[in-house]
UniProtKB/TrEMBL annotation:
Source organism of this protein record: Manduca sexta (Tobacco hawkmoth)
Any GO BP: mitochondrial respiratory chain complex I assembly
Organism lineage: Eukaryota, Metazoa, Ecdysozoa, Arthropoda, Hexapoda
This protein's name: FAD dependent oxidoreductase domain-containing protein
CC terms in the record's Gene Ontology section: mitochondrion
Start and end residues of each FAD dependent oxidoreductase domain: 55-431
PANTHER family according to UniProt: LETHAL (2) 37BB (PTHR13847:SF282), SARCOSINE DEHYDROGENASE-RELATED (PTHR13847)
Amino acid sequence: MNMYCRIIKQTKSLLYLRPYSTKNPFSKTWNTISQDIPYFFKLREEEIVYPEHADIVIIGGGLIGVSTAYWLNTRAGEGISVVVLEKDFSYSEMQKKFKYGTLTQHFSLPENILLSQHSAEFLRNIKQNVNNNVDIQYFPTGSLVLASEQYADKLEHNVAIQKEHGLRNELLSPNELKSKFPWLNVSDVKLGCMGVESEGIYNSWELLKGLIHKTKELGTTYVNAEVVGFEMEKQRDVLMEGIPPGSFERIIRVIYKTPNNEEHKIKFSGCILAGGAYSSDIAKLAKVGTGDGMLAIPLPIDKREHGSYIIKGKAAETGLSTPLVNDSSGFWLRRNGLDNNLLCGQLPSINPEHQNEIDIDTIKCSLQNRFSNYENCEIQQHITETYDCNVYDDSGILGPHPYHNNLYIATGFGKYGCQHAPGIGRAIAELIIDSQFTTIDLTRLGFDRLLVDEPVIEFNVY
């Protein structure tokens, strides 16, 4: 079927293509009218469009993928066609596990600091950027980092870097911490740092919904589908170091399967891999990690689970000014919005051998060490979130693959992916439209660092 796209109409469990009938002209006209009237009055479900061509295909409809679609459409307008493939089109799992995002600027890498600054600006102007009806429920809690004696010097070093980028942070001694936050146990704390500007929590689910709505208005097409393969085309005139002449293959189509197990293909100019924890498996479909030469190096993304726990009825003791607290052990604590509850958890380890060692007993031990009013705390498991962890250096991978130069990677940002998504999406759009980074130089986060073994490590104290 040689068309730009296939349009399939769906009613409940019936999926069909409207045929061109050879019936009596009156019957044919009546059938056409009877089918079109319900669609005109929106009495049936919307048409399902399966495009066969697109300028850009984005694999993954999470915040990073949708943010990329937003920036591509915002900058290029109708001059670019964008398709987003998302296997959980209902976002059912995301709605259960994906509500509050955090905004912090406590980093050692300039790239992370600059991405957070951009996110703060983007969220501050969310109604102008996305829609007046979007309410991300931003709550400026501030962010407090606690360093043990072992990490105090590192914290001071990080604060110096942050101040070079214009951040307003306040270093606090244990006595000052206790005076400011009487409910904190600081017996093992050497130094604290309080972020006093553009740090807090927000409803990331509302942000995602707003961006999806906006990108649809701007022309992005969303398809409920799971990627199952790529088609490649030999380009004998391409010469690349380490690749035998005449053997280079360029990815030109993505193959995907719908919930009805139908396979479709989209031919594209560029493809963006923003598949989160599943990115490595998707990359293998393009021979990344299974081929020769540059294709022998896998995309080092693995799934990490991070459980959060709810402490009932204790938020009144810490007050509305309770900051997001992180300490050197990886333990974190914050208010659960305006509820009279606290949330806490332990950041997952990059080492897969230790990822399942965190349980409620570990949390209770960490909580007892940090929260003075630990007695009579009622603790329950809240939710388990899934992160895309870059097991190479725990920093995100961003930019074109060195072999597949039309495959742009945006994954592995882990716990920072949610808050950095606006800047990550803008960066990918710059690479596609401008052929270079024009706002924040994120070159160091490229896949090339895996080839030369130069990790980019965020040396935070938590």
